[in-house]
Structure formats: C-alpha cells, structure tokens
Amino acid sequence: MGLNSKIKSLIFAGCSIVSITALAGFASSRQNEKKCEKVSINIDNEYNNYFIGDEEVRDLLTREGERKLEGLPNQQIDLKNLEKRIEAHSFVKEAEVFRGLDGNIQVSIKQNRPIARIIRPDQDVYIDADGNMLPLSERYTARVIPITKTMANRPFGRDFFQDSTGQAYISLLQFIETDEFWKAQLAQMHIDGKGKVYFLPQVGEHTIEFGKPEQAEEKFKKLMVFYKEVLPVMGWDKYKRVNVEYEDQIICE
C-alpha cells in the first residue's frame, strides 16, 4: 500500500470516528430532551417471595410521591441515584434502573431470598443464602425452616454465619432449601452448645441427631434409608431418636 493510500485510510478512519461520535452525541442529546411518560417495574419472583411490590418501589423512586418521574425531562432524572434508593431496601438484592429508547424508565429488581428464620429472644430475623440477616416483613412471611440455639451458648449475632464455621451451616441450609422432600419434612433446626445440629420432623415423633453441619449429602442419604426402609416396617411412632452423625451408621432408639 502506497503512502497516499495510507493517508487516505487514516483520513477516512478519522472522519468515521468523528461522525460516530457526533451521532452518539446527537442521540444522547435527543434522549435527554425526551420526557419520561411511563415507569415500568419488573420484580423477579423466582422463589415466590413477595417482600416488595410495585407500590413500594414507586414510593422509593418518588420519595413517597413527592417527586414523580412521569413528565420530567430525562436530563433531570438521575438513574444511579434511583438505583441506590431501591437497593437500600432490605429485601432488594439487585436493582437496575435504565432508560428505554422511548425515553421511559424501566426498573428491574431481584429480591433477597431468605432460607431460614432465626428465633431470637429479642426479635426474629431471616437469614439469606449469603449468610446476611434480614428483618421480618409485615408484607410477607417466608415459609422457611426456623432455627433455635442453646441459650447457654453465644446467641446469634449478625456475624454468626459469616466465618468458615458459620458458612458450614449456610451450606446445610442451602442443601435443605433446594431439596423438596427435606424442605417439606424438616420442621425445625436446633444448634446446641457444641455446634451440633438437631432436626424436628413434620411427620413422626423422633428427633434427628445430625451432628456437625458437614457431609450433608451422605447423612441425608442415610436418613432417607431410615424413612424408606425402617419406618414403613416398624411404624412412624416406634423411635424417639435417630442418629446419622457417625459414618456408615444409623442409630435408632
């Protein structure tokens, strides 16, 4: 390629960049001149949680109706600030506020997902899949397993589920939450002073002695053997305790 051809190519490329930049600026300017005529809200209810609804989201966006978005020019609407307001809500995990090509505002929300309810002397709280504590809601009550703790031991603090020890309990709760049978069958979880786990079932008079929150899959497999092969033969009220704590053993009394 000759020198003249190279120069022509560079000039063409430069002109193209300038044109694209000008068009982008023009489009942005036109967008800012548009007014918001409508606010569309989409709340992800993948786990059938209803902790926040359209009305609450609109209150957050408009500061309880003081500053409605409809009718405002786009240049007067701070999208990032609106996102921060929504994400300040306890049950909002992620929020995205963006402007459509028509200039209208669209809001997309993903909710936090409680996987257990912590029973405390002062006030109950939820725990989510990341180990964060969430307040109870007047709007909706999640159907999750309640957890108690031996009072002689340190009560549940906000950081209980955050370290490596606490994460083991979160992993156990996540296993239960994703298994339809155990989620329906386990009525309550208790943690004793040594950190061992006990379950009370929905059906049956026995206590399940699970041990430390480890090897959950193996322990639940043994427990399933107990439910499928022992209880149908011996009866659901035969045993008061079933222990799956120890490797390759099921202890029934």
Evaluate the radius of gyration. 28 Å
Percentage of residues in DSSP E strands: 15-25%
For the residues shown, what is the average pLDDT?
A: 84
Unreliable spans are: 21-29
Q: Tell me the name of the CATH class of the largest domain.
A: Alpha Beta
Structural class: alpha/beta
Query: What count of domains describes the coordinates?
Result: 2
Written description of the protein model:
The protein has 253 residues and is of the alpha/beta class. The chain folds into two domains: 39-111, Roll (Ubiquitin-like (UB roll)); 114-252, Rossmann fold, CATH 3.40.50. Helices cover 35% and strands 23% of the residues. The protein has helices at 3-33, 54-62, 79-87, 164-177, 180-185, 216-234, and strands at 39-44, 92-99, 105-111, 114-118, 125-128, 133-134, 145-149, 186-191, 197-201, 207-211, 241-243, 251-252. A nine-stranded mixed beta sheet has the order 6-5-4-7-8-9-10-11-12. A three-stranded mixed beta sheet has the order 1-3-2. The longest helix has 31 residues, at 3-33. It is elongated and about 80 Å long. The model is unreliable at 21-29 (pLDDT under 50).
Topology:
Elements: H1 3-33, E1 39-44, H2 54-62, H3 79-87, E2 92-99, E3 105-111, E4 114-118, E5 125-128, E6 133-134, E7 145-149, H4 164-177, H5 180-185, E8 186-191, E9 197-201, E10 207-211, H6 216-234, E11 241-243, E12 251-252
Parallel strand pairs: 1-3, 4-7, 7-8, 10-11
Antiparallel strand pairs: 2-3, 4-5, 5-6, 8-9, 9-10, 11-12
Keywords: Signal
Protein name: Cell division protein FtsQ
Signal peptide: 1-24
